[in-house]
Every structure is written in structure tokens, then in C-alpha cells.
Write a structure and sequence with these properties.
mainly beta; four-stranded antiparallel sheet; three-stranded antiparallel sheet
Amino acid sequence: MARLSVYDPFAEVFPEIFRGLLQQPARAQADVAEIRIEVQENAQQYQVQAELPGVKKEDINVQVDGNRVSITAETRREAQAREGERLLRSERFYGAMARQFTLGAELDESTVQARFDNGLLTLTLPKKPLPAARRVTIQ
């Protein structure tokens, strides 16, 4: 039986190491929106800022469980048909996006604060106070 193979004219000219440079990365091909975050810490709390452009406040969900923080959001594009116009191309993302991360200290879930303004979600995540050392009596 004959063996078939695909001829690659660049195989001799470009070694394997350079072949990946000519292709787009998988993330650029997938059209997936990503939540970009910035985390700052001080002795009492963490401050997290997450970029959520084009998202409404009602469509954001934040969950805190121990030291794990989950942010989910959904963007929707409302169709606006105008008289005498038609949409030729749309490159806006719509769908769901999520981000989950773990912080170094346990968080006090009851005092977490969240604020959303102009596409920027700001979370204030207070740390749980460390338990005081307990003296053990020896008997």
C-alpha cells in the first residue's frame, strides 16, 4: 500500500522553530473575552480591580469562598435595527466570561465590598483576623 504525505514547501526553508511564528496564537483565534485583574494587598485586606468593558452591573456575579474568588459576567448585544440600515460586520464579543483565583489568606466573606463604575469592578476583600495564640496548661 502506498503511503501518502503532505508536501510542505517551507519545511526546508524554515525550520520547525520558526513555523509557529507564522501562525496566530490559539487565544486570538478563539474570540474569547478575558477578565483582566489587578490585585493589591496590605495587612488588613486585598484590593482587586477587574476590567469588564461592555458589561452591565446586573450581569456580574462575584462569589467568595474561603480564599477563592470567582467573578463571572455576561455581555449581551442588543440588536438595534434602524430604518434603511443593515449591519455589514460586527466584531463585538458577546457571551459569558469568568475568572477565578486564590489569594494567600482567608477572607471575611461577610464584609466584602464591591463597586462597579465605568467598566471597572473594584472588590475590597478584608482578611480574616488570625486566631490569637492560646496558652495550653500542662497537667
